[in-house]
Amino acid sequence: LDTIRQVHYCCRCNYCRGNNKQIERGQPLYMSDISIIVRKMRTFAERNMAHRGIGFPEQLVLMSLLANGESNQESIAAEHGIDRGAITKTLAKLEAKGLVTRKVNSKNKREKIVCATPEATSVFNEMRASFVELDNTLFSGFTPEEKASACDLIARMAANLQEVVAAPVSAATAGDASAAASASPADAATTGKESL
């Protein structure tokens, strides 16, 4: 820990002081940085499409449909790690805006197929233009090689997490989950304050 402090606690600015606190709590520095990137990107996306009233979850669904083609609600929910109730509400908003259509699957009456409309393509092009601007800002000062390397590392990290989520829950993890479930509200609040 002392060695890490010497490397990263380089000055008395708020950034370094904050990172030092992360280290003392046992949280790697990159977790804080990734959290900042995700929050800023979401805020950027929300603001850039606010004039159309399209929130971030709706943008994710549109990008998924236009990239992969029509899909059912369950697959979309699984792709983004959200529950069926939330995806139903998101799709209802997009449908009301004329950006998606939902139809019953002729081969499975209990399943609804979701399709993007032509208007969704226009919205997507607008979203893409704004994300190009964000991408340029995010990688400002990077060489092409550094950008490619960063993208590769992030993709590998994401793939590793997919494997963790998909893996069976170990006995130790199950025990931790059980302990967390039985924790008092005060304990839960304390844990929440210490997490990112």
Please give a quick description of this structure.
Helices cover 70% and strands 9% of the residues. The chain is mostly helical and 196 residues long.
Structural class: mainly alpha
Shape: globular
Helix content: 55-70%
Number of helices: 10
For the sheet with most strands, the description reads: 3 strands, antiparallel
N-to-C order of helices and strands: HHHHEHHEEHHHH
Low-confidence stretches: 1-12, 167-196
Overall mean pLDDT score?
A: 76
Proportion of strand residues:
5-15%
The spatial strand order of the largest sheet comes to 1-3-2
Span between termini: 20 Å
Radius of gyration: 21 Å
Question: How many E-type strands?
Answer: 3
Task: Describe the protein.
With 196 residues, the chain is mainly alpha-helical. The chain is built from ten helices and three strands. It has helices at residues 2-8, 14-24, 29-48, 56-68, 73-80, 84-96, 118-138, 144-166, 171-181, 185-194, and strands at residues 71-72, 100-105, 108-116. A three-stranded antiparallel β-sheet has the order 1-3-2. A hairpin with a 2-residue loop joins strand 2 (100-105) and strand 3. Helix 3 packs across helix 7 (118-138) and helix 4 packs across helix 7 (118-138). The radius of gyration is 21 Å and the shape is globular. The chain starts with a helix and ends with a helix.
